[in-house]
Write the structure tokens for this entry.
Amino acid sequence: GIETAGSLNILFTDKTGTLTKGKLEVIGFQDGAGEKYKTESQLEKNKFLHDHVKNNCLYNNSSNFDDNHLPIGGNITDRAILAFIKSNSNKKYKKLKTIPFDSKNKFSGAVIDIGKKINYIKGAPEELIKKCSYALIDGKKKKITDKDKEIISTKCDYLADNALRSLGFAYKTTKLSEKEVEDDLIFLGITGMIDPPRKEVFGAVKEAISAGIKTIMITGDHKTTAAAIAKELGIMSKGDKALTGQELDALSEKELSEQLEHITVYARVSPENKIRIVKAWQEKGKVTAMTGDGVNDAPAIKEADIGISMGLTGTDVTKEASSMILMDDNFATIVSAVEEGRVIYDNIRKFIRYLLSCNLGEVLTMFLASIFTLPTPLTPIQILFVNLATDGRPAIALGVDPPDKDIMMQQPRRKSEGIFARGLWEKIIVRGCLIGVCTLFSFELARLFGMDLATCRTISLCTLVMSQLLHVFECRSERHSIFEIKIFSNPYLLGAVCVSVIMICSILYIPFLKSVFNTVSLNLMQWSIVLFFSGIIFLINSMYLYIKS
């Protein structure tokens, strides 16, 4: 649930659409000979190449088209390429077979009939080039050399170094009876695409770091591209490194455990890799969160302590496997959810602290009086009034209390931490005892001054109520005093306290209610006794927290 997010230690996040805007724009195309085409019109001059790239994009994609023949839905990479070549939905050829994306080979394909059967392939250039024996140069199929492959790989590295995403294209004539994807593909070229980081993510990453949350990027992009974005956002710092899925597979469990703290980027990973990474952090006792949108992400999302699926691009399978759905696919929203989780957890602690300490004070008042054989400080109906006036509205108002200003500068709580951890029991017991003792002291002081029993009970009743109403402000923060908290930041609490004060004054000064609750009207001196005993502990504790902070 959302409260679990408050104890988050490790946040695994995708790059595209989560850390970045998710709106890819193709900045150009380069063929196997190194010829660059910055616009679709330039590419169109090489008609043979243009037609092959167009068919590859048009038939080998997951997008649909609107009434204006513009790509909608589907993969953002497909939409970007289709927009670049200004393709439309007027498909002239029959698609014979679709080859879905494979996380191991990292490409997808489609076989179409254009008079002859052609298998169009697109995917990660560094993987695709390994399967190419030829390149399409000046409209002709030419043998591709190892040097050519090295040049293409260098170009991909250059794009990645500049935080650009690359996609490779290839094709071959085929027969449906044979294996559709094999060696001897013909390389068409690569595109460079830009997907700039979201502006709000820069601040969100810093906030996550200050909150003790380590952000780790897991992406299907090129390692260098992912590392460039990670460095720009502040996810990757000096001493950190990036690993590919293949490099991860080469590590033993011991080696991975030793290097785990310094790996902040994983690129070209498989679903099995993601599960292994999650488990490695969980073995270190960390609370993990995993984001994802595809079917392949579902196992890792389910394995993580907090599974987060993308609301805009996520599949139904991914959403069902997750415990949280991100409606705007934005990393900054995840950090906001972590803050909300911490706020909910803190407010639960506030609620418990207030109710238990106040109830303990009421019990001790009556218990100590009986132990020391004193007259009963409160009548049964007065005890009922205390619960009516102080327990309900102020406690509920604490449940919607705004967070401490430094809540995202605190370290995450331990996974095994109970609700009463970090000294909450001690705070409840000490404050409850002080409320009970001060109430009894006010009762005894009134008796010492020779006041009648009804007046003494009224003073103890008012002391008990006012002690609890002052204590509710103490419960607003475990780290800061009342002098550091904006008093008007929770209008619901102020309203609840005001209602309670009006209620206590009503049973003191309205004749009918006085007779019902057996109270008397208090004068200035008697009120000074009430305010002294109800406020002294509150003042001392607030001063202590203020000096300590």
In short: The longest strand covers residues 164-173.
